[in-house]
Design brief:
This is 2-octaprenyl-6-methoxyphenyl hydroxylase. Belongs to the UbiH/COQ6 family. Its cofactor is FAD. By secondary structure, the chain is of the alpha+beta class. It is about 35% helix and about 30% strand. It is built from nine helices and 20 strands. The strands form four sheets. It has an eight-stranded mixed β-sheet, sandwiched between helices. A six-stranded mixed β-sheet has the order 8-2-1-12-19-18, covered by helices on one side. Strand 9 and strand 10 form a beta hairpin. The longest helix has 30 residues. The radius of gyration is 22 Å and the shape is globular. It starts with 11 loop residues before the first strand and ends with a helix.
């Protein structure tokens, strides 16, 4: 339900109308809480990113009316992982987990727009074009100042949940953010294969940076990690030369691309906070952690944040919303999953960044060991699908 003029008070304000904020808003309203979702943008706009959504995440979204066949998601049934210059390789297979798929690939703009549309037509209150500029937190309430189409508006609430809004972290003196630059850029492109992809995704650790090919419709979405200089150079290549560079990195594992479109790049960094909770505030999704895309876990982690917080708040009476006890319970429940996924993602970049021969052979042996041990493969695949449980 779209609103233009904000109420003077609401129990919970969620900042950020992407899939993570939308999931939380749906769940909170279903549990009877008084919530308002505010989003700084009026529309999703053009966003070229493709997202790898774990099977468990898509099931959670579907159960809350935020996922259906109209999104045109492409199933991933297998993931082929290999390292250049060695025999190291393994393959994750949905059949080993008795699942129809490991995950799906969907365009971000489609998923986000679908969330906007669903929220606009149900009982969740949604304010678009409302940017929070100031947070003032008191003992029992928080006061927000927002820029809206009707001018500056004020609202009070018991609890503020940041699913986005990194610009607001500087105002939270009890939460500190750490930013680690990888000094890398992600090159994004759409590649059209000559032969059907059959739902197989590829992760290739090349000597000059990891590449991922995600099946997207009839095409592949390429995510290629490069130095800033390499990324700038790759964007200026002719289509034929760019395709040749990609095919050379995959060394015959996937060939025959007939076209490339939509090349772009953006800088990569790891953003974490010392605490996901503070006085009258909770951080989830990208506000809590922004990860490297190498393992495709950023949005999946954020959706699990939203689902867990919804469970905690569903059991919290309105008068206790924002109190330290319930917030501490949420932080404890999310610590293991968030900490482990963040550490593993960061370690993959560190581990595969070195071209030293001994380390390269050690990585190869690790992939070969996973390929030979079904329990290792299943365990790793389960973490990718369900998180650290």
């Amino acid at each position: 339900m779209l609103v233009s003029k904000l109420p003077q008070h609401v129990d919970i304000v969620i900042v950020g109308g992407g899939p993570v904020g939308a999931l939380l808003a749906q769940r909170l309203v279903s549990s009877g809480h008084d919530a308002l979702l505010v989003e700084a943008k009026h529309s999703v706009g053009n966003d070229p990113r493709a997202l790898a959504i774990a099977y468990a995440s898509s099931q959670t979204l579907a159960a809350n009316g935020l996922w259906d066949e109209s999104l045109g998601a492409t199933p991933i049934t297998r993931v082929h992982v290999s390292q250049a210059g060695t025999l190291g390789r393994t393959e994750l297979n949905a059949a080993e987990l008795d699942l129809p798929m490991l995950g799906s690939v969907v365009k971000y703009e489609k998923l986000a727009q679908y969330a906007f549309d669903q929220l606009s037509h149900n009982t969740v209150r949604l304010a678009l074009g409302a940017k929070v500029t100031q947070i003032q937190r008191l003992a029992r309430f928080a006061h927000l100042t927002l820029e809206t189409d009707l001018g500056e508006q004020q609202i009070s609430c018991r609890l503020v949940i940041l699913a986005d809004g990194g610009h607001l972290l500087a105002q939270l003196n009890d939460i500190q953010q750490t930013v680690k630059s990888y000094e890398q850029h992600a090159v994004l492109a759409t590649l059209t294969p000559k032969h059907p992809h059959q739902g197989i995704a590829f992760e290739r650790f090349a000597d000059d940076g990891p590449l991922a090919l995600l099946p997207t419709g009839n095409d592949y979405t390429l995510v290629w990690t490069q130095t800033p200089e390499q990324a700038a150079s790759r964007l200026t290549l002719s289509d034929a030369n760019f395709i040749a560079e990609v095919e050379q990195r995959f060394a015959g594992r996937v060939t025959g691309f007939t076209a490339v479109n939509g090349r772009a790049s953006w800088p990569l960094s790891l953003k974490t906070v010392n605490s996901v909770v503070g006085q009258r505030v909770v951080l989830i999704g990208n506000a809590a952690q922004t990860l490297h895309p190498v393992a495709g876990q950023g949005l999946n982690l954020g959706l699990r944040d939203a689902a867990t917080l919804a469970d905690v708040l569903a059991a919290t009476p309105a008068r206790e919303l924002g109190e330290a006890t319930s917030l501490a319970r949420y932080a404890k429940l999310r610590a293991r999953d968030a900490g482990l996924v963040t550490a593993v993602t960061d370690s993959l970049i560190t581990l595969f960044d070195s071209s030293a021969l001994p380390l390269k052979h050690a990585r190869s042996l690790g992939l070969l060991a996973m390929d030979q041990c079904s329990w290792l493969r299943r365990g790793f695949a389960e973490r990718m699908v369900y998180g650290a449980r």
